[in-house]
Amino acid sequence: MTTTRADRVHAAAYRMRHHILDMGEVQGQGYVGQALGVADLLAVTHTDQLRHRAEDPEWAGRDRFLLSTGHYAIALYAALAEAGTLPVSELETYGSDGSRLPMSGMASYTPGMEISGGSLGHGLTVAVGMALGLRFQGTRQRIFNFLSDGELDEGSTWEAAMGAAHHQLGLLTALVDMNALQADGPTAGVLGIEPAEQKWEAAGWFTQRVDGNDVDSLLAAFDAAAERAQPVGQPSVILCDTRIGRGVPLLETREKAHFMRIDEHEWQLCRDQLTHGHEGARAQ
Amino acid sequence: MTSSTSSTSSTSKTSTKRLTTSAMIASFADPGQRTASAPFGHALAALAESDERVVGLTADLGKYTDMHVFAQAHPERFFQLGMAEQLLFGAAAGMAEVGLVPFASTYSVFAARRAYDFLCLDIAEPNLNVNIVGGLPGLTTGYGPSHQATEDVAIFRGMPKLTIVDPCDSVDIEQAVPQLAAAEGPTYLRLLRGKVPTVLDEYDYTFRLGKASVLRGGNDVVFVSSGLMTMRALQAADELAQHNVDVSVVHTPTIKPFDAETVLAEVDSDRLVVTLENHTVVGGLFETLASAVVSRGLGTRVVPIALPDEFLDAGALPTLHERYGLATSTIVDKVLGELG
Prior knowledge:
The structure holds 2 protein chains of 2 kinds.
Chain A: H1 5-27, E1 29-30, H2 32-49, E2 64-67, H3 73-83, H4 123-136, E3 143-148, H5 155-166, E4 172-178, E5 181-182, E6 185-186, H6 187-190, H7 196-202, E7 206-211, H8 215-228, E8 236-241, H9 249-252, E9 260-261, H10 266-283
Parallel strand pairs in A: 2-3, 3-4, 4-8, 7-8
Antiparallel strand pairs in A: 1-9, 5-6
Chain B: H1 2-16, E1 35-37, H2 39-50, E2 54-58, H3 67-73, E3 78-80, H4 85-97, E4 101-107, H5 108-114, H6 116-124, E5 131-135, H7 152-157, E6 163-165, H8 170-182, E7 187-190, E8 195-197, E9 213-216, E10 221-225, H9 228-241, E11 247-251, E12 254-256, H10 260-267, E13 272-280, H11 285-296, E14 302-307, H12 317-323, H13 328-339
Parallel strand pairs in B: 2-3, 2-4, 4-5, 5-7, 6-7, 10-11, 10-13, 13-14
Antiparallel strand pairs in B: 1-8, 6-12, 9-11
């Protein structure tokens, strides 16, 4: 039986989800729900899409992945471990004093972390500059900016969206985690952002909206974006509808919370559910 | 007789005509003063000839920050980001991240008030070589608080790693531009644009980033000044000489890091010490010097000449400079009053 791209991504996402739970347990809480939700998406970027050198994260020819949503660092650390940029053994230091893996992602701390996100609505503006700069330098490197649906509240995101379309930054791709939740509650109640596709299309972007937990759909969307990626062209956005806590039914069904608290005895239960779910899926 | 009456009437009419705000950026050059046109734009265009990393960005204010000179000379290296200051500085950070040396221009009010978070976190924290160019610093427009960056230095001084430069004239600007590009981290230039006075070539002076210079010595008073107020300080020193008051002028175009060594060597005396700045009295040169004086344990009294802690009026620049104490005549009066 041949191993497909989708199989490899599935396997990576599964391992990443275990890493995420392990890191979450170190803190006893955290952005575990969001991280589980985007594990499939980051498994695609970090095991299937990005040109990089694991042993040389500063390699000038690399594609850029910008984590605008700094608190999703826990998910990116898992992806960087999967990509070989971080040793898996280091993940247990997550959020600890002196660790290279702080709770909110910062470029000066972590190999493979391109920018210090966290003040939301910044990443796409920096990505526009990188895309302009790399094109000016004559390269064909791609730039991916990861942001959350909550960041669509920020005016700067739309300044950048217009700027990218105006300058025809065809090698720029925005990845939006549409998990429908932000700090004060459901996105729809905090500041409505729908219809999101129409907004991006109106801003001049090639827009796709997919189930962000369906690996086949994600791969198809990334392939479509890659096919169109040109130094001068339409920037591309993939809106990914994700489910918070994906892969762990206990967390999928828990009342949605931006900062999820998980009791001490529940971590093993979460891991067991994740393992069983994965084995069940493989058996089908 | 008829002719004389007519002349008097005409003069009277002229003298009652009020000064007007005129353009957004009224030149503060005195009538007949030597000036250079768009020194920043020309200096940047010249620098780009020898440094291929240099790029220019603006947020719909190219013409008003002299960036258009660079844009015309190097169109492929000029990037128009639109009226979007957060994007302007975020994008400048991204360009610096890939090894370019951006100069990004807008008005000081928009850089300091509107885009602070982007300057702070995307540029200063990673210590990127982005050069922020802010037009209309302090009171250099009569358009009122929306455009008068009276507190830009106060806002920026708290930002770690940011170098702050307040040039006096075209000489300062021409010499500063390559040094700003050569400096490793981020810089903020309080831009003077258009017809900019040329003053410092009459002194034994060269701009050195991070350094203050004693432009002239004097036994009675020490002026510590930056920006266009150094020009006024020199003019006031000349006028005070006619009152037998001997004034030393220390020009400190770099506000941060502050050259305390050079400045305190002058300040540590029994002369009257006066700071002169085109900025609110809160958080600018006066407080920079005051903290240096206190830290050194000097008991020197320092008299500030600065803008008041207020939102300022609209109007003609000469009127406003006189109203708020930046005019040469008001400086002279203030010093004579202090000396009793």
